[in-house]
Amino acid sequence: MLDLAESADLLRLPVEAVRALATAGYLKVSGDDGTGPSFSVSDLKGFLARNADGGSALLVPDDADPTELLEALEGRSAEMARRALDIFGQGTPETAIWTAEEQQRFVDQSTARFEAILAVTRAGKAVDETLVGDLRDVGASAAWAGSPLPELLVVLRISRDLVVQTSVEIAEARGRGSSQALALLLTRVLPAMDRLTDALAQGYWAAVIGREETDRARYEHLVEQSSDGIYELDVTGRLSYANPSLSAMVGQSPLELEGARLEHIFQALGDQSADALARLDAEGEADVTFEALRADGVRREFHVVTFPRLADGAIVGYQGVVQDVTALREAERARHEFLAMVTQDLRSPITTILGLGVTLEAYAGELSTERIRRTGASIRRQAERISRVADDLYEVSRLESHSLRLTLRPTDVAGAVDAALSALEDPSGVEVEVPDGLEVLADARRLELIVAGLVENALTHGAPPVIVEAWDEPEGVDLVVTDAGPGVAPAAVPSLFTRPGSGIGLYLARGLAEAMGGRVAYEPGPGGRGSTFRVHLRRPPVR
Predict the structure, then answer these.
(1) N or C, fewer C-beta in 10 Å, the chain?
(2) Sequence-ordered list of residues with C-beta below 8 angstroms from that of 159, at least 6 positions apart, any chain
(3) Pairing between strand 466-473 and 239-242?
(4) Which of 247, 288, 297, 293 is nearest to 268 (CA)?
(5) Which residues make Cβ contacts (< 8 Å) with residue 459, sequence separation at least 6?
(6) CATH number for the 67-222 domain, one of 1.10.490.10, 3.40.50.1000, 3.10.150.10, 3.20.20.70?
(7) Edge to edge, what strands does the sheet with 267-268 contain?
(8) Residue 14: pLDDT above 90?
């Protein structure tokens, strides 16, 4: 705002002349503090623009009507849009490869833009905040769509210049009488373009800032809630940030981690792990796996990836992502042990079958009928053994994929034990003490697999006699397999029923028993000699 004297200096008129113009309505008074009127700079510049032809239009009032000129401009919106494409193409080389469809889209958008500019110009000061808000939304949409702001401003500048240039062309074609309307129109076009540009820019930058804040909040949430440990080091190699997962992994509180060095956080085990840990302090990226002790003495295996943080091309610190891969490595080792165990179970019968087959092939004419019969029986037993291993593997896969289907019905325990023993290669060292008529609720085929697995385990890892018993209990039926071997070492008991454990039989026995609603447990034999495996199953419901 300028007071009366300042306004007179700007217009290069006497103070009294400015006062008279304001009184007559040729200058808009924006305020009056009692000492005299005050005027906005934009209104004063508008007055100068309307009377820029040397003073002949000095007394043209502020309400001169440019309607006809506006209507003529609106009729040339499409023409200005095509000219805008030509001008834009001169400064933007990639438009040379635009398709006809892309060029037409630009022309359509430019036409709509010119119509909007002229609508804002026609409304003048009556433009409401709704339109301004819509323009801000357009700028925000451009920001979210990834359109660069400089390109938007270039397009707006081209549009502004074309409106001014076309207005002048129309006024000149109509003669000098249109100069007053032209001057008034330009005082409206330029502020309208300013409002349009400001609204778009405000919406654009508000969206950019909002997106940055959203991204930052999302990143912070992701880091804080990540199951991976995430840390930051300053240039001295000391910890400046650690998320909760890293604190849990290394067994230290955030307060203990603050300012600590990596060698204090991870106590490397062995020279190889120490060398891997040292690489995390070196410049550049690192990707290492090492073993370390937590603060509570628990042995863990970590995989760490680090990369530098840069600012203006200089390293200002490092970021790292830590994964506790102990369970993964143990699972891999268990898988290899399991494969080795299955391979061992298959190698023996296959080797026997191969040997017997070679014997038959080479000496078939010299062997007696009885010898051939015994050889065939041996081949059959070894093939049945391979078939049992295949069945066990199939059942294990069904258990682990949760796709095992059972047919539970009253099952005779003695019959299931007899069927299981008949499938063994040599059940001579097994004694059975199962009463007739004792029934359990089970899948008969799966119960046979449980008994066969427990007895074969007792014969392989224990010693005869192996005793199979069963009896009623208040809550069900107990089926017990006992051997006279050396027993199970205390350190091996926790992993006894795991997949690598002591064999596929125990792992499968536990899984099948639990699937049928029962359980399997190990008990040391009397005096620490022998092993007892107890299977508890449900009784059939009483009708």
Answers:
(1) C
(2) 80, 84, 110, 113, 114, 117, 193
(3) unpaired
(4) 293
(5) 424, 426, 429, 430, 466, 483
(6) 1.10.490.10
(7) 239-242, 229-233, 314-324, 299-311, 286-293, 267-268
(8) no
pLDDT per residue over 399-417, tens digit each? 777 778 888 999 999 999 9
* Torsion of the alpha carbons at 312, 313, 316 and 318, rounded to the nearest 10: 130
Alpha-carbon distance of 311 to 360, in angstroms, equals 80
For 17-58, write each residue's pLDDT tens digit. Answer: 788 778 767 788 888 888 888 998 888 887 777 665 544 344
Please list the residues that pair with 482 across neighbouring strands: 467, 532
Contacts of 2 (CB under 8 A, 6+ apart): 10, 38, 39, 40, 41, 44
Measure the CA–CA gap between 219 and 225, rounded to whole angstroms. 10
Distances in Å between the Cα of 496 and the Cα atoms of 447, 451, 483 are 20, 17, 16
Grade residue 60 by pLDDT with cuts at 50, 70 and 90: very low
Q: Which two tokens stand for residue 533?
A: 């495996």
Q: Retrieve residue 84's tokens.
A: 């805008």
Backbone angles phi, psi at 3, to 5 degrees: -80, -175
According to CATH, the topology of domain 227-324 is: Beta-Lactamase (3.30.450)
Cis peptide before 465 (omega within 30 of 0): yes
Region 406-537: CATH code: 3.30.565.10
Contacting residues for 180 by C-beta, under 8 A, at least 6 apart? 50, 57, 60, 64
Residue in 146, 163, 145 with CA at minimum distance from that of residue 155: 163
| CATH class (in words) of the domain with range 329-399 | mainly alpha
212: which 2 tokens?
Answer: 């940055």
What are the structure tokens assigned to 307, written together? 């990369």
Task: Retrieve residue 483's tokens.
Answer: 């051997």
